[in-house]
């Protein structure tokens, strides 16, 4: 993978994994095209802002690739701890303000700890299993601390209430546990427990609006002009696009405002109306290649932390993309998870680029000959 | 428990990472599959949905076809109409908007209430009417403020216009918006498009399918918030067919005016073809104001009027034809073998069994042959002769001349009357026919009932000697078989009818003053009350001293010129009582016929007499309505929802009461003729 410098291009630049960066640039660039169209052929208000953030955070990701994996490993638990405190802070702040709140303001920058928790839970768990002696992996001591590590932030986020993010944090954590070698029967038992608990949770834990979303997901016609409207219009946009779409800037669902949230959560529908099935498959393949590369990075990683982190972070990316896609095409309830690099919104770009930066760092570590 | 080494752990990781990767790939496949399902398999369905989202179809009401008279003059046409509608989905602040519109357009509270209900019912882009028939000033006031009033749509449309106004009310009918029931019955969205009206009565209703035309459509691309983006396509409307009638609009107006304050009807038929040249029922309603939506007050006034302006008397009024049947009787008697020269002595009364039948002339006419009996309208002659041949010998001739007959006329409601005979009575009342029945029928009373159109047909058949069929639509079927009577018999009757007017008969007042044209006819009086023996002893009450509803009907059938008939007419005036000479049948008949031969003379006569009864019908209706308005200090009760249905039911009631009262009041024991 490593390429020698040819004299004109500096060694550090030449050594970057260009195939991956090209993939990310392709997805991000496509996202900007979609946002340009969503604004009726204007770079404002979305494409320009999004482009700025995209390149800013891409630079951050490339910068992060220089961070040694050792440092990531050492700092993972303290940062995780800080995020849990921040989540608590958000919760308390929300209580004081008399409403729900998901972010705290840090000097003009809106900081959403739950979002950062998505990759951080992976790092924290990877660090935990790295510290755990291999012989303890199948013992109880390998399980309960991981459950606590996952449970505390997940519950805090669900209480915000942000069920989508909470479940995603849980999902990311469980994937790392699976990769770390926790006995399979536990996952099977867990799946059964969820199957039993889900109906109970549906009836007793979920908020009315969440319950409603699930019901409408199961039957969008229930509420054709309310919440079901989103999913109905999204399906119309995608379905009417056909194989090759209506053409760039030709989408009627998005341009005539029938599709709500066409630039954020439902950007995929905006895209597929104009680019059709071809555009959708392109995105699935592109994200798939990125995630496959991430898993490959994990396979090549030298440390247990690196392996678990890389594969886990790939899982985070996977959850991010697939939850949004499933929601937009009517396979999952409307949960408010954006499609990274396509949907407008800085937080998702930031999280996704952090994931990329971590993967780049592990990739770099895996390719260097010398051990640290 | 197996001891797990770091190497084993790495191996386990690789295996599990591959499993996870494969699972993720599988999810990816599912997602792609679902996308393909939506965009390939269900593509058509979603394309349609996207299209119906995007495109808003607005119907353009078709221009209604005109109704033309025989020379092409419009009897019903379209004029430009300024209207204001509301598009419910585009309204931002309904209350503020309605308040502003009320201020700009002076909307009455009842309109405001209707708009509120319509808005609740409509929703979406289906426009709701605010006001129509606006003058330019009020329309312009809304037009200039349109940008500040989202949801308001000022539109230029078409409204129906009837140049003759009330003169064609019952003939042409009127148009109106479709009722909720009609929309429920045939879900045509055109029915609820503002500005669209369909025929509610008369020819407008029966010819509606031909007059209606096909709506145009405007396809507009709209945003989810209803803002129109661009017009995609406009398909022009296809105007309805213009239909030519046999009516002569000049004559129609003249007749309507000449009837004056009478409650009556008049029909003129072209003897050459059966064309109906005029068909007037007065008083009438103004179809212009009916088509605009009638006010409660106007409705109340019309429905309370004892001259029943809501009933088309030509087809729905049934009257005892009285002496107008005597020429027909004459034909029938001759056909039954009675010699026209045989004389009957009229002493003024005839005893039949226990009853006494009187002639209208108290002292009697003395000896009379058939011709003189018709000219003097002698009742005794016909009592005697019909008693001899029996009414069953007369009834076929009555039917042959059109009485009791159905004519295929483009109207929804017609009443056909009765030509009685023994079989009919047995079937209907389960009683045998009596001599008294024959005698009553012989003078057009008793069970005999006819509508004015049938009387006009009778006159036209007597005039032409052919079985003429009346027609109202130009280019309708024509061609008539000759009457199966001998020319000599017909000549006797026509001569008698000439004598009625020009030979010292009962209708001398109808003599025309057009050189070379003489009118032939037969007058009639139909009694609507029973005259008791006591009253007969003290002297029969004069009509002028009776209340309106108790007065006799006045009738006239006639044709001209007597020797080469061109036109035939029938006039029936309800409860006229022969009280005012200028408003009685002979002079009205004379003037209507004069119009056909010497228009200027007829107009001159009209100009002289019309002021005596308060001017033409438009003037009088305006005055009546103003007086009524003034009299109604208290707020009027709510008008019925659907004027059309109420109107027809009211007309039915009125028609029934006319028929019933005649039947009830004229007992078959005695009768009088007042000619």
Automatic annotation (TrEMBL), chain A:
Keyword Cell membrane annotated: yes
InterPro entries given in the database record: FtsW/RodA, RodA/MrdB
Subcellular location: Cell inner membrane; Membrane
GO terms, molecular function: lipid-linked peptidoglycan transporter activity; peptidoglycan glycosyltransferase activity
Pathway in which this enzyme or protein is active: Cell wall biogenesis; peptidoglycan biosynthesis
Assigned EC number: 2.4.99.28
Membrane topology: Multi-pass membrane protein
Catalysed reactions, as listed in the record: [GlcNAc-(1->4)-Mur2Ac(oyl-L-Ala-gamma-D-Glu-L-Lys-D-Ala-D-Ala)](n)-di-trans,octa-cis-undecaprenyl diphosphate + beta-D-GlcNAc-(1->4)-Mur2Ac(oyl-L-Ala-gamma-D-Glu-L-Lys-D-Ala-D-Ala)-di-trans,octa-cis-undecaprenyl diphosphate = [GlcNAc-(1->4)-Mur2Ac(oyl-L-Ala-gamma-D-Glu-L-Lys-D-Ala-D-Ala)](n+1)-di-trans,octa-cis-undecaprenyl diphosphate + di-trans,octa-cis-undecaprenyl diphosphate + H(+)
Keyword 4Fe-4S on entry: no
Major enzyme class: transferase
Any one of the GO BP annotations: cell division
An example Gene Ontology CC term for this record: cell division site
General function of this protein: Peptidoglycan polymerase that is essential for cell wall elongation.
Family to which the UniProt record says this protein belongs: Belongs to the SEDS family. MrdB/RodA subfamily.
Name by which UniProt lists this protein: Peptidoglycan glycosyltransferase MrdB
UniProtKB/TrEMBL annotation, chain B:
GO biological process terms held by the UniProt record: cell wall organization; peptidoglycan biosynthetic process; proteolysis; regulation of cell shape
Topology in the lipid bilayer: Single-pass membrane protein
UniProt-annotated stretches for the region Disordered: 628-675
Domain (Penicillin-binding protein dimerisation): residue spans on this chain: 60-232
Start-end of Polar residues biased regions: 650-660
Start and end residues of each Penicillin-binding protein transpeptidase domain: 264-578
SUPFAM superfamilies: beta-lactamase/transpeptidase-like, Penicillin binding protein dimerisation domain
Record-linked Gene3D superfamilies: DD-peptidase/beta-lactamase superfamily, Penicillin-binding protein 2a (Domain 2), Penicillin-binding protein 2a, domain 3
Keyword annotations from UniProtKB, A to Z: Carboxypeptidase, Cell inner membrane, Cell membrane, Cell shape, Cell wall biogenesis/degradation, Hydrolase, Membrane, Peptidoglycan synthesis, Protease, Transmembrane, Transmembrane helix
One cellular component term from this protein's GO annotations in UniProt: plasma membrane
Subcellular location: Cell membrane; Membrane
GO MF: penicillin binding; peptidoglycan L,D-transpeptidase activity; serine-type D-Ala-D-Ala carboxypeptidase activity
Pfam families found in the cross-reference section: PBP_dimer, Transpeptidase
Protein name: Penicillin-binding protein 2
Organism per entry: Sphingomonas trueperi
């Amino acid at each position: 993978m490593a390429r020698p410098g040819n004299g004109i291009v500096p060694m550090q630049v030449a050594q970057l994994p260009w195939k991956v960066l090209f993939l990310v640039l392709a997805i991000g660039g496509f996202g900007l095209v979609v946002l340009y169209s969503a604004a009726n052929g204007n770079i404002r208000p979305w494409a320009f802002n999004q482009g700025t953030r995209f390149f800013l955070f891409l630079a951050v990701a490339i910068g992060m690739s220089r961070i040694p994996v050792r440092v990531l490993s050492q700092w993972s638990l303290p940062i995780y701890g800080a995020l849990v405190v921040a989540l608590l802070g958000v919760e308390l702040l929300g209580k004081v303000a008399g409403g729900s709140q998901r972010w705290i303001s840090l000097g003009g920058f809106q900081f959403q700890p739950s979002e950062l928790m998505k990759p951080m839970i992976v790092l924290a768990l990877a660090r935990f299993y790295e510290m755990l002696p291999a012989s303890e992996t199948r013992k109880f001591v390998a399980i309960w601390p991981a459950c606590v590590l996952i449970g505390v932030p997940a519950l805090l986020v669900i209480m915000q209430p942000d069920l989508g993010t909470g479940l995603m944090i849980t999902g990311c954590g469980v994937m790392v546990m699976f990769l770390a070698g926790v006995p399979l029967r536990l996952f099977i038992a867990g799946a059964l427990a969820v199957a039993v608990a889900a109906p109970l949770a549906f009836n007793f834990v979920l908020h009315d609006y969440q319950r409603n979303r699930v019901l409408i997901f199961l039957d969008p016609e229930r509420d054709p002009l309310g919440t079901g409207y989103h999913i109905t219009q999204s399906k119309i946009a995608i379905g009417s696009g056909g194989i090759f779409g209506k053409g760039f800037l030709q989408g009627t669902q998005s341009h005539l405002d029938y599709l709500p949230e066409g630039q954020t959560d439902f950007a995929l529908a905006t895209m597929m109306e104009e680019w059709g099935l071809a555009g959708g498959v392109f995105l699935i393949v592109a994200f798939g290649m990125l995630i496959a590369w991430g898993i490959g990075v994990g396979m090549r990683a030298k440390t247990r932390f690196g392996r678990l982190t890389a594969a886990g972070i790939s899982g985070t990316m996977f959850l991010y993309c697939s939850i949004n896609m499933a929601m937009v095409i009517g396979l999952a309830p409307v949960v408010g998870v954006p499609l990274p690099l396509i949907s407008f919104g800085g937080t998702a770009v930031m999280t996704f680029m952090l994931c990329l930066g971590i993967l780049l760092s592990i990739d770099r570590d895996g390719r260097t000959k010398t051990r640290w | 428990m197996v001891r797990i080494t770091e190497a084993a752990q790495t191996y386990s990781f690789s295996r599990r990472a591959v499993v996870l990767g494969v699972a993720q790939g599988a999810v990816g496949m599912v997602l792609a599959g679902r996308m393909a399902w939506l965009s390939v398999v269900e593509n058509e369905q979603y394309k349609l949905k996207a299209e119906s989202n995007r495109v808003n179809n607005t119907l353009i009401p078709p221009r209604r076809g005109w109704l033309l008279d025989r020379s092409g003059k419009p009897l019903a046409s379209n004029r430009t109409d300024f209207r204001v509608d509301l598009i419910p989905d585009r309204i931002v602040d309904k209350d503020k908007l309605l308040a502003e519109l009320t201020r700009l357009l002076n909307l009455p509270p009842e309109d405001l209430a209707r708009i509120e209900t319509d808005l609740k019912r409509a929703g979406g882009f289906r426009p709701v009417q605010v006001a129509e028939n606006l003058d330019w000033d009020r329309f312009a006031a809304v037009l200039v403020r349109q940008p500040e009033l989202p949801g308001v749509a000022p539109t230029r449309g078409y409204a129906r216009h009837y140049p003759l106004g009330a003169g064609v009310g019952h003939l042409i009918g009127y148009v109106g918006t479709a009722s909720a029931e009609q929309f429920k019955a045939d879900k045509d969205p055109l029915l609820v498009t503002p500005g669209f009206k369909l025929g509610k009565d008369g020819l407008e209703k029966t010819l509606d399918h031909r007059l209606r035309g096909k709506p145009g459509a405007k396809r507009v691309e709209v945003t989810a918030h209803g803002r129109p983006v661009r017009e995609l396509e406009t398909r022009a409307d296809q105007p309805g067919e213009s239909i030519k009638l046999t009516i002569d609009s000049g004559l129609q107006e003249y007749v309507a005016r000449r009837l004056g304050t009478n409650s009556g009807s008049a029909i003129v038929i072209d003897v050459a073809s059966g064309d109906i040249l005029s068909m007037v029922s007065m008083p009438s309603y103004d179809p212009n104001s009916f088509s605009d939506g009638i006010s409660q007050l106007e409705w109340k006034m019309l429905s309370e009027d004892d001259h029943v302006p809501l009933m088309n008397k030509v087809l729905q009024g049934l009257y005892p034809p009285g002496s107008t049947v005597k020429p027909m009787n004459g034909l029938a008697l001759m056909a039954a073998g009675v010699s026209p020269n045989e004389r009957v002595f009229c002493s003024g009364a005839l005893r039949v069994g226990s009853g006494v039948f009187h002639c209208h002339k108290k002292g009697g006419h003395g000896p009379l042959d058939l011709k003189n009996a018709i000219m003097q309208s002698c009742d005794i002659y016909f009592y005697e002769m019909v008693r001899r041949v029996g009414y069953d010998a007369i009834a076929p001739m009555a039917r042959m001349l059109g009485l009791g007959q159905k004519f295929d006329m483009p109207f929804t409601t017609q009443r056909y009357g009765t030509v009685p005979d023994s079989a009919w009575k047995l079937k209907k009342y389960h009683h045998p026919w009596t001599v008294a029945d024959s005698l009553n029928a012989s003078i057009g009373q008793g069970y005999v009932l006819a509508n004015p159109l049938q009387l006009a047909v009778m006159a036209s058949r007597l005039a032409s000697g052919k079985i003429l069929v009346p027609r109202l639509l130009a280019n309708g079927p024509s061609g008539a078989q000759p009457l199966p009577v001998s020319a000599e018999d017909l000549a006797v009757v026509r001569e008698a009818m000439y004598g009625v007017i020009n030979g010292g008969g009962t209708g001398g007042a109808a003599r025309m003053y057009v050189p070379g044209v003489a009118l032939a006819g037969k007058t009639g009086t139909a009694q609507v009350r029973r005259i008791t023996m006591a009253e007969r002893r003290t002297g029969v009450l004069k009509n002028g001293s009776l209340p309106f509803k108790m007065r006799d009907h006045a009738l006239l059938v006639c044709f001209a010129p007597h020797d080469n008939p061109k036109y035939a007419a029938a006039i029936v005036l309800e409860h006229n009582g022969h009280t005012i000479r200028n408003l009685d049948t002979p002079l009205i008949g004379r003037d209507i016929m004069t119009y056909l031969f010497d228009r200027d003379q007829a107009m001159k006569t009209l100009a002289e007499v019309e002021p005596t009864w308060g001017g033409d019908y438009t003037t009088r209706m305006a005055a009546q309505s103003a007086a009524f308005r003034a009299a109604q200090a208290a707020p009027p009760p709510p008008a019925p929802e659907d004027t059309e249905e109420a109107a027809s039911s009211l007309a039915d009631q009125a028609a029934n009461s006319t028929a019933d009262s005649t039947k009830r009041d004229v007992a078959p024991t005695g009768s009088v003729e007042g000619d």
